[in-house]
Design a protein that fits this description.
67% of the residues lie in helices and 1% in strands. By secondary structure, it is mostly helical. It has a two-stranded antiparallel sheet. Helix 4 packs antiparallel against helix 9 and helix 9 packs across helix 10. The structure holds 3-methylbut-3-enyl trihydrogen diphosphate (2 copies) and magnesium ion (3 copies).
Length: 305
């Protein structure tokens, strides 16, 4: 059963505990650093355990806790949640490559290709992506039907049609032109909101939730996902490399299509807050039980790292 925050432990302690559960399960899922060929396992572990907020797996666990019958979650929920972090970390390793954003700092450490080399970073990303689907295929406590639905949700969100890779492709193309509202919305919904939507959807799918519940959570995820990337853009302008653990000020330098580039900082921030409110309203069908997820949403949009 997933622990829910009680008045006694408080919300930030609850998330810290969830984060620890995710990290120890990730540790168990990824081959040890001395398994042959050691270099690839070292690189996978280097990027995976460099830090990170773990918000996608935490969203998945909270969504499962919200939709589980009698509060008893699917016994595979930690592993299912970890697949989102495997995909996300792969996307960060590839996002930082010289051919994409060409970054040398990630999660407060040198990027994977700087620490190892480009070939190892490409393969470490490939390996994390592959491992995610191996984990889903081999979930011990979930039916074949649920494993198949989870794989479909995750692969679609990470894919090319309105998914993460599609968004990354258009993000790169857009560096050569002036961004428009339509373009930046397409990029952000695809490269970031799709995987965040899958995070909450997969938690509900793992619990065989009713379709109205899955739909409400997906609406929540897509609004919160777009707001999350708007905040990422705002922090790129306003934050420091030290607080973000990644290079600040890069979007302007690389002519990236961002919300601040299209709308300015103030309007971007206001759009993020509006999406946050809209996201929380989508959870009204759950009543007071959604309060943990709503607080999590606040912390995704109103943050400084
Ligand atoms: C960074 O994601 C990339 C985006 C989609 C904005 P996070 O801000 O979740 O990065 P970590 O996992 O905490 O490092
Ligand atoms: C990254 O967007 C989205 C994905 C990795 C899919 P960004 O390029 O804005 O992310 P950061 O700012 O480097 O973390
Ligand atoms: Mg990028
Ligand atoms: Mg980047
Ligand atoms: Mg960014």
């Amino acid at each position: 059963m997933i622990p829910t925050p009680s008045a006694a432990i408080g919300i930030s302690t609850h998330w810290e505990l969830q984060k620890r559960r995710i990290e120890s399960r990730l540790d168990a899922l990824v081959p040890a650093a001395d398994v042959r060929p050691a270099r690839i396992h070292q690189a996978m572990r280097y990027s995976l355990f460099a830090g990170g907020k773990r918000l996608r797996p935490i969203l998945c666990m909270e969504s499962a806790a919200l939709t589980a019958v009698n509060g008893d979650s699917n016994a595979d929920i930690e592993a299912i949640s970890c697949t989102l972090e495997l995909i996300h970390t792969y996307s960060l390793i590839h996002d930082d490559l010289p051919a994409l954003d060409n970054d040398d700092l990630r999660r407060g450490k040198p990027t994977c290709h700087v620490q190892f080399d480009e070939a190892t970073a490409i393969l470490a990303g490939d390996a994390l992506l592959t491992l995610a689907f191996q984990v889903i295929a081999m979930l011990p406590h979930s039916s074949a039907a649920i494993r198949s639905l989870l794989a479909a949700e995750l692969s679609t969100a990470a894919g090319t049609v309105n998914g993460m890779i599609g968004g990354q492709v258009v993000d790169l193309e857009a560096m050569k032109s002036k961004a428009t509202p339509e373009l930046v919305q397409y990029i952000h919904c695809s490269k970031t909101a799709a995987l965040i939507t899958a995070s909450v959807a997969m938690g509900a799918i793992a619990e065989s939730a009713a379709s109205a519940e899955v739909a409400a959570l997906k609406q929540f995820g897509s609004d919160i996902g777009l707001a999350f990337q708007i905040t990422d853009d705002v922090l790129d302008v306003q934050g420091t490399s030290a607080s973000l653990g990644k290079t600040a000020g890069k979007d302007h330098a690389q002519n990236k299509a961002t919300y601040p580039a299209v709308y300015g900082l103030d309007v971007s921030r206001a759009m993020g807050i509006k999406l946050l409110e809209q996201a929380k309203e989508s959870l009204s069908i759950f009543g007071a039980r959604a309060s943990t997820l709503k607080q999590l949403a606040d912390s995704l949009v109103i943050r400084d790292s």
